[in-house]
Amino acid sequence: MRAWLLARKDVVANLLAAALCLLVVAVALRLGLDAHARGEMDIRAIEIPRWTLFALLGGGFGLCGLEFLRHALSREAAVQDRTSPLTGEA
User: Fold this and answer.
1) Which CA distances in Å does 1 have to 14, 29, 56, 76?
2) Cα(20)–Cα(69) distance, integer angstroms
3) Would you say 57 and 21 are in contact if contact means Cβ atoms under 8 Å apart?
4) pLDDT digit string (tens) for 24-80?
5) E-strand spans in 13-78?
6) Closest Cα to residue 7, out of 59, 78, 75?
7) Around Cβ 75, how many Cβ atoms within 10 Å?
8) How many CA atoms lie within 13 A of 38 on its CB side?
9) pTM
10) Residues above pLDDT 70, as percent of the chain
11) What are phi and psi of 89, to 5 degrees?
């Protein structure tokens, strides 16, 4: 098992990063729903509903999570794991 993890370290790293991004999405969703239910406003230069900030945060991290999943599940990741980073040869 450990040898497999070492051989696929890029895939494992991408899966962990995707999981972390999805965790942030879940937290942002929860905070956004709370802010919407309370009717909270964010007053800085302009006045906007606070839930919009959490929606943007969740959307951005959601897209990052999808990108990490795409990298983890793509064939290029498997090929890259088996090639030398300097020469590109197996």
Assistant:
1) 18, 35, 39, 22
2) 11
3) no
4) 999 999 999 999 999 999 998 899 999 999 999 999 999 999 999 999 998 765 555
5) 41-43, 47-49
6) 78
7) 7
8) 11
9) 0.74
10) 78
11) -100, 155
Summary mean pLDDT of the chain: 87
User: At residue 33, what is the residue type?
Assistant: L
Find out whether 12 and 68 touch, Cβ atoms under 8 Å. no
The domain locations on the chain are 2-82
Helix (H, G, I), strand (E, B) or coil at 41: strand
Residues 6+ apart with CB under 8 A from 80: 10
Is-contact 10 80, C-beta < 8 A? yes
Q: Report which secondary-structure segment, H or E, holds 20.
A: helix 9-38
Residues contacting residue 18 through CB under 8 Å, at least 6 positions apart = 65, 66, 68, 69, 72
DSSP label at 89?
Answer: -
